[in-house]
């Protein structure tokens, strides 16, 4: 009789634990569902052609097949999932053209992340090609740690890691190889 009481008690405890565990698992899944927020854009646009001006002068033209705005997230950003074609104009109206397969613009840092077949061409014939490049809009400065190819009228060089001003007047490279004609 003592044996039956002992095992009945263990069975009751085991039964309660299993019921509690299964009940908690079901509630846990419901809690997960209620805390899940879908990551959707707050705005979308197709076939965009934006012109940026400063004191009535066009400073940039951005063309893209698609733009997706994520303004309602903790770290707001804008995606250009089908690529961009940007033309920057300096104060003398010289153009710099930027092409990329994909771009993300981060609002809080003013950094643009350009990815996939990134190509920058200046009006003076300088061309930079790489897989990924960042643009600091505030300082008008490009930079990457990726491999790159730089071509100008003096020659072509390859390297890894470069940063430069949007007009190519200041260029700093880390590892470089190639033949470039020198003025000296």
TrEMBL record:
GO terms for molecular function: lipopolysaccharide transmembrane transporter activity. PROSITE patterns: PROKAR_LIPOPROTEIN. GO terms for cellular component: plasma membrane. NCBIfam families: LptC_YrbK (TIGR04409). This is LPS export ABC transporter periplasmic protein LptC. It comes from Flavobacterium franklandianum. The lineage of its organism: Bacteria, Pseudomonadati, Bacteroidota, Flavobacteriia, Flavobacteriales. The gene is lptC.
